[in-house]
Amino acid sequence: MRIVELILDEESELGIEAISVVENPAIEEDFIALKSQEFKLAEIDGERKILMGALLIPNKPIYRRNGEDEYYIYFSKDTVLKASQMYLMNSKQNNSTLEHQHAIEGLSLVESWIVEDKVHDKSVKYGMDLPLGTWVGSVKVNNDQIWNEFVKTGKVKGFSIEGYFADKMERPNDQTIKDELAQIEEQEAEYLLAEIKAIIKNDKRVKGGKKMVLESYSDYPSSVSNNAKRGLELNEAVNNKCATQVGKIRAQQLAQGKPISKETIKRMYSYLSRAEAYYKPEDKQACGTISFLLWGGKSAKTWAEAKLKQLEND
User: Fold this and answer.
1) What global pTM score does this model have?
2) What is the mean pLDDT of each successive set of 10 residues along the chain, which is 314 residues long?
3) Among 47, 253, 295, 310, which residue has the fewest nearby CB atoms (within 10 Å)?
């Protein structure tokens, strides 16, 4: 199934026209209803009726169907940033719809920002785990009908944007994705080679006349090992066409629950953060999916991020 990148047509100054509150957000991220005890001004006693949530997530495939034509669309980080800026520059913050069908009054975008920090971003405070580059917004609901009949009853669960974008090009095919992921894994190979050389020369593991002991960790969840095993199985089913030798070694290491060093955890998180854009769980033959699983998948990314934070605080 083809994947198309959508870009802004800046010459025509078109972009996002409205924010719609919907039951099934295309971006698959529910908003959060902020109540008075969570976000309160001194002079306000009741609920402030504010909804917070992701408006647009970069590199996230969104399913679309036009007649018999099925495909995915996605937006780059750069396009998400431009869209968020143009929305406010064009004074569209009061444009809202319900389920993309009915124009509604009383909803206004009162806060808008791009996630730039996975630790200190405001969205983290409210339990969101959003990718870097995500456009997040808070919408004030001055419409009692929408708030009481749709928000409080759970009939709407998130935001979905409306706008005009242009098709840029099809996303890279499987071979191109394989080549790009291989380049990322090549960096890991170079790192491993440098480590081996350092150990052999015994010149980078000496401090104060004593050899340094590299700490390693194997407390990653079983889901990481299971993902790696699944990746190995899927890769075998396609005659091991995906991933470099480094990726296959990493999968064997994780599948067997072997310990990994802090530096490896850093590289694992870096690789998975970049490779996640090519992960399509519905396509079990795609190299992007297989390679992502070989490195432990989403479970490994989540664990690696948390582990690195823990080690920094220790």
Assistant:
1) 0.51
2) 64 68 74 50 50 88 72 84 89 90 90 93 87 92 90 86 62 54 58 56 50 71 95 90 80 90 85 84 86 93 93 82
3) 310
